Amino acid sequence: MKREIYDEDHEAFRASVKQFLDREVTPHLETYADHHGLDRAFWLAAGKQGFLGLEIPDEFGGSEAGDYRFNAVLTEELAKVNMTLPSCVGIHADITVPYLVHLTDDEQRARWLPGCASGEILTAIGMTEPGGGSDLANLKTTAVRDGDDWILNGSKTFITNGGSADLVLVAARTSPEKKAKGISLFAVDTTLDGFSVGRVLDKVGQDESDTAELAFDNVRVSGADLVGPLDTGFISMMQFLPQERLGSAITNLAHAKQILEETVQYAKDRQAFGQPIGSFQNTQFLLADLVTRVDVTQAFVDQCVIAHTKKELTPVDAAKAKWWTSQVQNDVLDHCVQVHGGYGFMNEYRVARAWRDARVTKIWAGSNEIMKMLIGRDLGL
């Protein structure tokens, strides 16, 4: 079914993203995996192409597209390559940067945004803590006022871009007695004394990503690094989470769709018992089922993209898109591995890496169980 949400400008942008990926990224994927991270050359090249500044105003070096469909196109094309690219680029350009655009003053924007757009300043967001998971309201990291400064203590884990970030947006408790209403956000320069990167975590998949533990040991942060009003961090996180979850949904579906298309071709090419395996009824029925699931899910995600472009996407619909696409993605890829047989279990095959990479999508950006709780509450349950 033809998708109707993109026009000629979006497709021209898609072509430029594809060209960039083919020229600048695909040849280096194995190096990224070996080094467990995207090198700075990648970020600078992406910045030069304008891919990191879609949310950033022109005066600070961005393009400020003002149309989330461009973000969606970029995310789709990155996801066709692997799960790491939309994850790492999304954390920087689609998740962290909007905080720095919408919650900061002119001095802060001038200090941070040009580097974010160019790739000279790489960002990460420090929400999740050891033992905390999706329970952001009960985070333990603290920020205590000391004159005009703040002293940060605590730790974060599962932080995408954590091993290489120059600036980390950190959620910390500034007024413990207020509980969720006592959390604030700070932009922490990773060169500050007391900040350290712990382990770059050994994950099941997404080898190209530097997912790390972060520690804050009496880190002195200037009052000028407070992002947004004091004690409004939790509210801000809730306001920005729908875009993060929509980005996850777009990634999940585009990734699954690409591997499914490759699997259909494999079923045409692979011979067994003297004929293509795709000619067997079981394989035909299976692939028909998977293609239908992907296409039907695409229709809902596209509507979510349109709603978000109009600033009408609700947190509940974003939760639906996030959990459903991650489930569809994992179901599709599990079957794609099966169609590939023994080859599907070999890391040299894209389907095997895709299968490993996708498992986390049912956990991150709020676990699927949390998403269902949000939907259930909206039903008045």
Your description of this structure?
Helix content is 50%, strand content 15%. The protein contains 11 helices and 10 strands. A 4-stranded mixed β-sheet has the order 1-4-5-8, covered by helices on one side. A 4-stranded antiparallel β-sheet has the order 2-3-7-6, with helices on one face. Strands 9-10 form a two-stranded antiparallel sheet. Helix 8 runs antiparallel to helix 9 (315-340).
Tell me what portion of residues adopts beta-strand conformation: 15-25%
Shape: globular
Q: How many beta-strand elements?
A: 10
Order of adjacent strands in the largest pleated sheet:
1-4-5-8
Structural class by sheet pairing and helices: alpha+beta
Which residues form runs of ≥5 with pLDDT under 50? none
Counting DSSP H or I runs of 4 or more residues, the number of helices is: 11
First CA to last CA: what distance? 36 Å
Order of helices and strands: HHHHHHEEEEEEEEHEEHHHH
Radius of gyration: 21 Å
Question: Descriptors for this entry?
Answer:
381 residues; alpha+beta; four-stranded mixed β-sheet; four-stranded antiparallel β-sheet; 10 strands; 15% strand
Secondary-structure topology with pairs:
Blueprint lengths: L7 H18 L3 H7 L4 H9 L19 H14 L2 H19 L3 H13 L4 E4 L15 E5 L2 E12 L6 E7 L9 E7 L5 E6 L10 E12 L3 E2 L5 H37 L1 E2 L2 E2 L4 H29 L5 H26 L9 H9 L9 H11 L3
Provide a quick synopsis of the model.
The chain is α+β, with helices and mostly antiparallel strands and 381 residues long.
